[in-house]
Amino acid sequence: AQSVTQLGSHVSVSEGALVLLRCNYSSSVPPYLFWYVQYPNQGLQLLLKYTSAATLVKGINGFEAEFKKSETSFHLTKPSAHMSDAAEYFCAVSQAGRRALTFGSGTRLQVQP
Amino acid sequence: DGGITQSPKYLFRKEGQNVTLSCEQNLNHDAMYWYRQDPGQGLRLIYYSQIVNDFQKGDIAEGYSVSREKKESFPLTVTSAQKNPTAFYLCASKGQTGEGDTQYFGPGTRLTVL
Fold first, then answer.
1. Which residues of chain A fall below pLDDT 70?
2. Nearest C-alpha in A relative to B55
3. In Å, how far is A82's CA from the nearest CA of chain B?
4. Which of A45, A97, B19, B90 has the largest count of CB atoms under 10 Å?
């Protein structure tokens, strides 16, 4: 069975500071990995995805994530936080041919002025 | 303008009533999904459908029902058997395997039981 762990349900950073949101997965076979962002009372928007190509994946809004098989991690980073980055972020895992995504419990990012 | 629409955005239900949440997509996707979102719990899979006229239970299907009569539509009925239906409901769809299992989400419906 696959699972996703997001360390830290709340993360607070200052505007301009580095954003680091952690995601670890467990999967018996090579996974597909995703980061989604959710703004209040809205659906989920895809930020980026890893599908066994380059291990460093660049997404929208300046975010990127690195797949590290040895650490079973897929942490999300952004060099400089903007106020508009305040939202909830979800990591998810899938495997080819499996039925659906398995989501982590989410990390709420606050950006302080 | 391609995408997924859900209606209504807000829905209020009295105890004992069934309600139906709408989900429509014009992305020509075969697979569609319903998730339930509760605070601090991420998203949990209710039902999914990989093709018209076929659907499967997810992890928390009890108290819910679905139909898939058309490729574009995947309505979810929350029945009176669902003991705690107040939540945010998200519909998603997925294209062919070549897209790397990417799911695209609708804007959601917030259901409140009065």
1. 1, 28-29, 95-99
2. A99
3. 23
4. B90
